[in-house]
Amino acid sequence: MPTALPNLDALIAKDEIRDLVLNYCRAMDRGDVALAESLYEKGAHDEHGLNATNTAEEFIDSIGDLLGGLATLQHNVTNHLIRITGSDTAEGEAYVVAYHRAERAGVGYVLITGGRYLDRYSKREDRWKFAHRKCVADWTHEFSAPLASDVKNPVSGNLAEGRMDEQDPSYAFFTAFPRGERA
What we know:
Blueprint: H1 4-29, H2 33-38, E1 40-47, H3 56-68, E2 70-86, E3 89-104, E4 107-124, E5 127-144, H4 169-173
Parallel strand pairs: 1-5
Antiparallel strand pairs: 2-3, 3-4, 4-5
């Protein structure tokens, strides 16, 4: 049974990397810049198409302005392939569907993007982090929509409304997912 431990280590690493990617989604969707910053290694790259230097530092510095223009943001990760390439390195491709609701010139719109995150991960100080992320858009769909979100309707009843800040109901509900900290 000499291969059991390396296989178990690979499974644990893949699970930790999936958590890294899901923490990224939570950071973006809740506007948690401190959490986002903790997910990248020092000197990492992030090619989101919005930052000229493609550095993670520049991308994180722009998150406040970027998210401030959105009323709603939700990332949904679907297929996620991960290959462990060394004891502290890995690569992955994660498919994502991102829903954005905002306004342009006083008119509400929704942008839904289907794409992929092409990631290189590194493990430093016992934590997996992004070393390099390249975002790829495979398709987009944009359409007009009301500015206001109405989650209180006959279908959903009186559901709590999600927010992109520290007032999101999850922060009061959970003790295991504090703002600014990895899950």
